[in-house]
Design brief:
It contains 2 helices and no strands. It is mostly helical.
């Protein structure tokens, strides 16, 4: 595996990571809590969501560049 394919795989994996973290956070807040933890309805705050969205946005902007470099590498390799 070359560095371009590895970068493409890492970009896709890093795109999935914030999505999975967001789904886990939503699931955790919707879970019924009893005892000293409390019964109040919690929600994700802006400051909890900010790192997830910025990480997702950064990797989303990096994806087209990774795909184009991988395609260039494959085209060069065929020559």
């Amino acid at each position: 595996m070359n560095k371009h394919a590895l970068r493409l795989i890492l970009v896709i994996a890093c795109l999935l990571l914030p999505i999975m973290a967001l789904l886990y956070g939503i699931w955790d807040f919707r879970r019924p809590k009893t005892g000293p933890v409390g019964d109040g309805e919690l929600h994700l705050s802006f400051f909890q969501l900010l790192p997830l969205f910025t990480t997702f946005l950064i990797w989303l902007l990096n994806l087209p560049q990774a795909v184009s470099r991988y395609r260039e590498h494959r085209a060069r390799k065929r020559r």
